[in-house]
Each structure stands twice: as structure tokens, then as C-alpha cells.
Amino acid sequence: GAGVSQTPSNKVTEKGKYVELRCDPISGHTALYWYRQSLGQGPEFLIYFQGTGAADDSGLPNDRFFAVRPEGSVSTLKIQRTERGDSAVYLCASRSRQGGNEQFFGPGTRLTVL
Amino acid sequence: QKEVEQDPGPLSVPEGAIVSLNCTYSNSAFQYFMWYRQYSRKGPELLMYTYSSGNKEDGRFTAQVDKSSKYISLFIRDSQPSDSATYLCAMIRNQGGKLIFGQGTELSVKP
User: Fold this and answer.
1) Residues whose CB falls within 8 Å of the CB of residue B8, separated by 6 or more in sequence, listed in order
2) Which helix (H) or strand (E) holds B64?
3) Which residue, among B99, B105, B106, would best test binding to A if mutated, counting the most A CBs under 10 Å from its CB?
4) B77 near B65, Cβ under 8 Å?
5) Taking CB atoms and an 8 Å cutoff, what residues of chain B touch A40?
6) What is the 3-state secondary structure (H, E, C) of A47-90?
7) Distance CA A52, CA A50 (A)
8) Which of A17, A87, B76, B88 has its CA 20 to 30 A from that of B37?
């Protein structure tokens, strides 16, 4: 079966622009997570959805970052007024209700803000 | 101070060597411990998952957890060039919660 997919794989934008990053979780997975990975660092948690609602958004760095999951499947991470410091790989992971703690990661979206 | 500390390396070993990777953590609330492997420009993939203190073995990989010392390890026996990757330790406080990662150790296994 298909794994977690993320689009686009690469995104280059200019400072101040708005971007949307998309995550398609594994079919049937109820939990979805967003992480951000800067060069040479481990992933850092951003937000976690259980179904359609955000169960934990404590990792969002500021109000320029927002994420939605309106139908409990696909999720979109939205970044307003991008800054150069937002450049990173944005990773999405999903987990099944029966799958314990195993989170399956997508390949990530590499965001570059010029 | 970060909650999870991991030496970033890089670590270079010859093929066939035993590799030891380690992480320390400060929060005793962590209950679940994982090791992920990440190849260049790929997402992390789960290698090992442990819940309690002790050892867990899977093929050439052994994970150790010492909760009293807040220290976890991953051993790789008979290392292969295909093991060359970044190894990330990760921890969770509660079932289904967010992963807290270490910085990752970059490993290179030379033929």
C-alpha cells in the first residue's frame, strides 16, 4: 500500500509570501503529525491531529503557522509572511489507532525562503 | 538544555565493525523509546521501539534502555555500507503523543 505522501517535494519562495504544504496520510490512519527539520538537527514537533481536530498545537512557532485537516484525512500546513528562518524540511507522519506509537513519515517538503 | 541529547558525529567505521549510538535525556516522564534511521533526503523510518528498561534485539540491531540513568543505546553488529545514514533517537511521554527527537548521529560505514 501507499505510504505517506507530501507535496510539493520542493518549494522555493520569496520572503513575505504565503505557502501551503500538503500531506496525504496512510489510508485509515486517524492521527497525523507535522514536524520541522532544520539542517543537521532532529525533527521538531509542530502540531498533532486526531481526526479533524488539533489535539496538540504547542509546537507551532507563532501565529504565521496554521494547519488544517478538514475531513480527517489530508492535511495542509499553511505559512503566512514567510521568513528566511522558515527554511527547513517539513515532515508529515501518520499513525493508526491500533498501531501503538509507530509514526510513519513521508519524504518531506523542502522549503527554501529566499 | 535540550530534553534529548545526542552526539551528532559524524561517525565513520569500517565494514563489519560494531557501532554504538547513544542518547541521554532529562525528563523522567518519557516512557517510550525509539530509534529511527534517516537516509539522505528521505523521511525517518522506525528501526527499534522499546517501552521499558532492558534490551531488545532485532537481527543485527540491539536497543538498550536504562531509565535509572536516563540513557538509551543502539548497537549495530556487522555493520554494512547500507547502514550509512543518520540515526535519530526519539522519545514519547504518553501513548500516541508527539515524538521528541535527538539531534541525530551521522554514520558512515566504509567498505
Assistant:
1) A40, B103, B104, B105, B106
2) strand B61-66
3) B99
4) no
5) 8, 103-104
6) EEEECCEEEECCCCCCCCEEEECCCCCCEEEEECCCCHHHCEEE
7) 6
8) A87
Note down pLDDT in tens along chain B; length 111 residues: 789 999 888 999 999 999 999 999 999 999 999 999 999 999 999 999 998 888 999 999 999 999 999 999 999 999 999 999 999 999 999 888 899 999 999 999 999
CA–CA dist A113, A99 (Å, integer)? 36
Note whether A46 and A67 are within 8 A (CB): yes
HSE-up of residue A55 (Cα within 13 Å, Cβ side) = 15
Q: Nine-digit cell at A101?
A: 506509537
- What amino acid occupies position B62? T
Give the helix, strand, coil percentages of chain B, each rounded to 5: 5, 55, 45
Selecting from A40, A44, A107 the residue whose C-beta is nearest the C-beta of B42 gives A107
For B17-44, write each residue's pLDDT tens digit. 999 999 999 999 999 999 999 999 999 9
Locus of grid cell 555500507: B81
